[in-house]
């Protein structure tokens, strides 16, 4: 069934079984002739073994993709993790962005992953947005466009496929398309700002563009989400922008597309009709494939499907063969130096004594997937010569440091700090008003923090925890915000 080439099911690493729990599903997917697989998590060596096995059993070349916005180490343990794109963008050094993309692509290919779902081309322009935030390069359209272009160039130089997302822009939403179908009621003129990085991506030769499960009445008066909208995909992206690469859906498990009332199978057919070429993360492959086959020659023309199959085949021939190696010492050292470089003083004065009470406020707990371990911060502090004493509350008798974790996570449904986190911060500030706060989240969250001294470290991954500790080790004398 050639239509199966449009399907890209997902497999997630399990701490107990690895990828073994998905063996039967993967066997079925390969037998159906899917176009590829999406991977979430895993030990790097196990990922390499899996991708080698899948390719050896597939009758056609596979596109194997992953969300690697923050480097290959974002998903795969043992590969190199990088700071969030917002942190990289804050440096406004295109050579750094280009190098970050090249490193990501080189390691991904070594692991057998040849399609990188990055860069994020959305604008970080809505403080209430619960899903973009630090994932975007910034808020200025031209500056973001420049970094999107640099990222695409770096990725292409190493031979992996890039994917700009989420067209025509997820930056103005105040809801998360994982949980609902957002509507952007902005004018066409305002949306033109959001389109600027995507235009740049097309000019730069991006391999793929991922759609947003978001409605834009100014672009399609029917309020159909972009993923299912022919005026947005075929009319705007194909005809007006002249994009000839792959159009790929965001995950089909998300409510933003399921809320359209067609169900997963109906949404898949509608996405192909609208102009999508690849369907990410179908849960019921058999039902989706049956719906596509039923629609062929009726609601879905065979010529339309043939064009998608041609684009998928062309993309599979463009990727380079894998190079050996991931997590090399030199690459890890570069990432560590980059993580330290992006840390900044948001306000107040930084004086980090050698001994202090360490209060951790974790606003990322809960949801379907656990947050990263917070142990690297304590370990890195000790390695840097500090003597932190983890405590559950501050009493005010000792110097204190507060680490607050507040990253972008799909299940949270909010960009800001929770009431519980704010209450703990209030209590801590009453006990130790001079405590230094290290915010491992978006800089604008500092507005919610009732503290005099705030340092921003952008995100809660191990690389940023370690970067923050090493930055503090170099700032043991008073510094003030510029």
Blueprint (SSEs and pairs):
Blueprint: E1 7-8, E2 10-12, H1 23-32, E3 36-40, H2 44-57, E4 63-66, H3 85-91, H4 94-110, E5 115-116, H5 141-158, E6 163-167, H6 188-203, E7 208-211, H7 230-240, E8 246-248, H8 255-258, H9 263-274, E9 279-280, H10 285-295, H11 302-318, H12 329-342, E10 344-347, E11 349-350, E12 355-362, H13 375-383, E13 387-391, E14 400-406, H14 419-431, E15 436-441, E16 453-456, H15 462-473, E17 479-480
Parallel strand pairs: 1-9, 2-3, 3-4, 4-5, 6-7, 7-8, 12-13, 12-14, 14-15, 15-16
Antiparallel strand pairs: 10-16, 11-17
Report the mean per-residue pLDDT as an integer: 94
Q: Radius of gyration from the CA trace? A: 23 Å
CATH topology of the largest domain: TIM Barrel
- Low-confidence segments, given as residue ranges, are 476-482
Largest sheet: 6 strands, mixed
**Helical amount among residues, as a percent range?**
25-40%
Count of separate structural domains: 2
CATH superfamily annotation of the largest domain: Glycoside hydrolase, family 3, N-terminal domain
